[in-house]
Design a protein that fits this description.
With 424 residues, the chain is of the alpha/beta class. Helices cover 42% and strands 18% of the residues. The chain has a single domain, classed as Glycosidases (TIM Barrel, Alpha-Beta Barrel). It contains 15 helices and 17 strands. Strand 15 and strand 16 form a beta hairpin. The structure holds beta-D-glucopyranose.
């Protein structure tokens, strides 16, 4: 006779398909250190950004031992980004040593059994590109294409999964609407529109180039996909504000890519962090995205991260279901929490992986899950304060310090399964 509680547990275990990718995501400027030739560095040094990236995590030198750690945590894939400003530090001048470096990075992943997922643009631009007007200029697409040609020629035979652009909408909103990211142009609506259009064109151009070098490549973009709901569904103005925000953040870039999206996307990368509860306000309407309601002290049972982002696993399930309608595979390219509470991090991961499992049981075709992020890093305008990492970093000597939740995630990765909550 089997143990009934064990068989209930087994019945309630979701098994992911063989080859499902488990890993963590990183981005060049946040971890490499000394990215001196990009637009962030320039503004960090001039004091126009609140924090300096400096040595970051010195991952540029330490990538091999970092990948050893990822492997020891049961990961089977790893997402990282190539720093355009290293490949092309001056306009038209390509640095062969930088390209060789990334070839070594890819090989270091592969010998450890980690499938590389390569991002070509993760928020930073070469400083010279910014001086020319960056993404607002039509020839930005040509310049990006030239960079992608070099990278694809060198790496396409080694890399199957590619992300052209990380979160085009977030980049544009921060750079040209909020204006707190380079080139720091608040309220520049026309520039925002031009930049978004050019980033979408750059994606399509990158898609074609990578396929030229590797017809079977899987090329996508990483889309920031908040789950947007109105504060009071009965209030028409709140519903309107939420619909507008959702359109701008979740639909607009897909419209700009043209239809059907499967023409230029082999998968959609979903970066999911939080639910956004939106209420109408005159100011919010002026920014097209409404005002977020996040009273983190109101004790209404909602849970928030240290950055005030609402923890809402069901939003991942809804989001995956929603994007599954495009009938293109999905990859969770980022999902994570900034917290100093390890129990909260572990339960965040488990709850989100369960939500992913539910979406997959409902038919969503998802190929992998990447936690954001491998270790604490330079979190843009938040500096070093946000603790998203599976590992902490002692910045005095760059030691990586494993966190308990890394082992909770390891269990999921190694078993390729997740015990589901008992159902009544
Ligand atoms: C970005 C990362 C960032 C993370 C947490 C994502 O939007 O792609 O670069 O660190 O969110 O804020």
């Amino acid at each position: 006779m089997g143990n009934p509680s064990v068989s209930a547990q087994l019945r309630n275990t979701f098994r992911f398909p063989a080859g499902f990718l488990w890993g963590a995501s990183t981005a060049s400027h946040q971890v490499e250190g000394n990215n001196r030739w990009n637009d962030w560095w320039e503004l960090e040094e001039s004091g126009r950004l609140p924090h300096r990236s400096g040595e970051a995590c010195r991952h540029f030198e330490l990538y091999e031992s970092d990948f050893d750690l990822a492997r020891s945590l049961g990961h089977t894939g790893h997402r990282f980004s190539i720093e355009w400003s290293r490949i092309e530090p001056r306009e038209g001048h390509f640095d062969a040593a930088a390209l060789d470096h990334y070839i070594s990075v890819v090989r270091a992943l592969k010998v450890r059994g980690l499938e590389p997922v390569v991002t070509l643009h993760h928020f930073t631009n070469p400083a010279w590109f910014g001086h020319r007007g960056g993404w607002t200029r039509a020839d930005s697409v040509r310049l990006f294409r030239r960079y992608v040609e070099r990278v694809a020629a060198a790496l396409a035979s080694e890399v199957r999964f590619w992300i052209t652009v990380n979160e085009p909408t977030v980049y544009v909103m921060r750079a040209f609407i909020a204006g707190d990211w380079p080139p720091c142009k608040p309220g520049s609506w026309i520039q925002a529109g031009l930049a978004l259009r050019n980033l979408c064109r750059a994606h399509s151009a990158g898609y074609a180039i990578i396929h030229k070098y590797r017809p079977q490549a899987m090329v996508g973009l990483a889309h920031s996909a908040p789950y947007v709901v109105p504060l009071a569904p009965a209030r028409r103005v709140d519903r309107f504000a939420a619909r507008m925000r959702d359109f701008v953040l979740n639909a607009l870039s897909f419209r700009l890519l043209g239809r059907p999206p499967s023409r230029v996307l082999d998968f959609i990368g979903i970066n999911y962090y939080a639910r956004q509860v939106v209420r109408w306000s005159a100011r919010g309407t002026a920014t097209l995205v409404g005002s977020e309601h996040k009273d983190i002290h109101c004790n209404d049972g909602r849970q928030f991260s240290a950055l005030g982002w609402e923890v809402y696993p069901q939003g991942l399930q809804e989001t995956l279901r929603r994007f599954a309608v495009y009938q293109i595979p999905l990859i969770v390219t980022e999902n994570g929490i900034a917290t100093s509470d390890e129990a909260q991090r572990a339960s965040f991961i488990e709850a989100h992986v369960r939500a992913l499992a539910r979406a997959m049981s409902d038919g969503a075709n998802v190929l992998g899950y990447f936690y954001w992020t491998l270790f604490d890093n330079y979190e843009w305008t938040e500096g070093r304060s946000a603790q998203f990492g599976l590992m902490a970093v002692d910045t005095s000597n760059q030691t990586r310090i494993e966190r308990p939740a890394a082992r909770a995630f390891e269990k999921i990765c190694r078993s390729n399964s997740i015990p589901m909550e008992e159902r009544p």
